[in-house]
Write a structure and sequence with these properties.
The structure is a single chain. By secondary structure, the chain is of the alpha/beta class. The protein folds into three domains: 193 residues, FAD/NAD(P)-binding domain (3-Layer(bba) Sandwich), CATH 3.50.50.60; 133 residues, FAD/NAD(P)-binding domain (3-Layer(bba) Sandwich), CATH 3.50.50; 93 residues, Immunoglobulin-like, CATH 2.60.40. 20% of the residues lie in helices and 36% in strands. It has eight helices and 27 strands. Strands 1, 2, 5, 6, 7, 8 and 19 form a seven-stranded mixed sheet that branches. The chain has a five-stranded parallel sheet with strand order 10-17-11-12-13. A hairpin with an 8-residue loop joins strand 3 and strand 4. The longest helix has 19 residues. It is globular, with a radius of gyration of 22 Å. It starts with a strand and ends with a strand.
């Protein structure tokens, strides 16, 4: 049995965990430990060799490895320790972490505060229940990305991609560059699920068809995928039988959404949001257990790694302050209300201390809309107001205001996205 003592323990060594660790160390935490189940730090960015990272955080266009490489250099220079090839089995409410390590066996980590940064996983065929046979040639987009970019294995030659998530569109371009033919990207919604820039750079630039309001109704093939049936869907997302058409292909990629990795969070008995399936957090990224913080895609699925970094820096900084006994004293709690065309808000609530701090609320809309006004109000006080040409569920929006602007008589802030008349 192996025992480790530390100030801040961070579970997950991807971009969220790395940013939280660097931030905690800079805040003054003496010993910061990253626990990572992979054999190297970097998380999903290890396989994201395409550019597009760091545009807002660094004002540069970097590849995934270049982006996380900068944080690894900082972590090494600050003396941040890491426990690799280690699977966390349990996080106890007291902050003790039980994990299993290939070198030490069962390992106990006693931390004064814990940061959850486990990221998310892809939804699979089992999650969406596509009928048909069970042949080879069905991959999640992320699994295909790993095979091609890290293991130099080609997944197929005639490809249909179900879902217009960012990884799916990026893989449409990647497979095309490797000589495959991407037959179509099929999306059940009547709008894009990912970023507009990925549609332009990955689909439009390569003449890859995008079929909105369509879905795969059946998979055909015995040993290997031979094709899929694709049909148009009605307003209730039900396939229209007479529109069904057969698309010959040898591979089906699934880019149908991400699920925050919160099995550990649930076992820790912290409050989970029914909308995001991640921990409920305040503006300090603190969960319902005061010693446990959370950040990145484990809280809510972000569209940009730059946003993940900013949230994670807050989580690391505040976890360090909690560990050192300098965490702010909360005076009152402000609830956050989702108004018109707002799916969720993150953070989920505000714990107001004496200081006047700037707050950024991230959110996604429920449906696409053009020419809208985004407002944040507390009672009659307008905290934020901005006009936007368009909003889309695939792209995150945000509002920013100061806590000092919230009236003393108010205990709620509401965010609305309304169509301009």
């Amino acid at each position: 049995m192996h025992n480790i003592q530390c100030d801040v323990a961070i579970i997950g060594g991807g971009p969220a965990g790395l940013a939280a660790a660097v931030s905690a160390k800079k805040q003054g935490a003496q010993k910061v430990l990253i626990i990572e189940r992979d054999t190297a730090l970097g998380g999903i960015l290890q396989q994201c060799i395409h550019p597009g990272f760091g545009l807002t955080y660094y004002n540069e266009e970097l590849t995934g490895p270049e982006y996380y490489g900068r944080f690894i250099k900082q972590a090494e220079s600050l003396g941040i320790e890491s426990l690799l090839d280690t699977m966390v089995l349990e996080v106890q409410p007291t902050g003790k972490i039980i994990c299993v390590n290939s070198k030490y066996g069962i390992t106990y980590v006693d931390a004064k505060s814990v940061v959850l940064a486990m990221g998310c996983r892809e939804r699979t065929r089992a999650n969406i229940q596509i009928p048909g046979t069970r042949p080879a040639g069905i991959y999640t987009a992320g699994a295909a990305q790993r095979l091609i970019n890290r293991q130099n294995e080609m997944v197929g030659r005639e490809i249909v991609i179900l879902g217009s998530g960012d990884i799916g569109m990026i893989m449409a371009r990647r497979l095309t560059l490797e000589g495959a033919h991407v037959v179509a990207v099929v999306e059940i919604m009547n709008y894009l699920a990912g970023l507009t820039r990925n549609r332009v750079q990955c689909l439009d630039d390569y003449d890859i068809p995008l079929l909105l309001s369509h879905t795969v109704t059946r998979i055909v093939g015995n040993e290997r995928v031979e094709g899929v049936y694709v049909a148009q869907v009605d307003e209730n997302k039900r396939p229209i039988g007479e529109t069904e058409e057969f698309y010959p292909c040898d591979t089906l990629l699934l880019s149908v959404g991400l699920i925050p990795e919160n099995e550990l969070s649930r076992a820790t008995d912290i409050e989970i949001s029914a909308v995001t399936n991640g921990p409920v957090v305040n503006q300090f990224m603190q969960t319902s257990n005061p010693a446990v913080f959370a950040c990145g895609n484990v809280v809510h699925v972000n569209d940009l790694v730059d946003n993940v970094t900013l949230e994670s820096e807050i989580a690391g900084r505040e976890a360090a302050r909690y560990a050192m006994g300098s965490f702010p004293q909360v005076k009152r709690r402000i609830s956050l209300e989702t108004g018109n065309n707002v799916r969720y808000l993150c953070p989920h609530l505000l714990d107001i201390a004496d200081m006047d701090e700037q707050i950024t609320l991230y959110f996604r809309v429920l449906a696409p809309e053009h020419n809208v006004t985004i407002t944040a109000k507390s009672g009659d006080a307008v905290l934020y107001k901005k006009k936007a040409v368009k909003v889309n569920p695939g792209e995150m929006e945000h509002v920013t205001f100061k806590t000092g602007e919230i009236p003393a008589s108010s205990d709620c802030v509401r965010v609305d996205v309304t169509k301009e008349v």
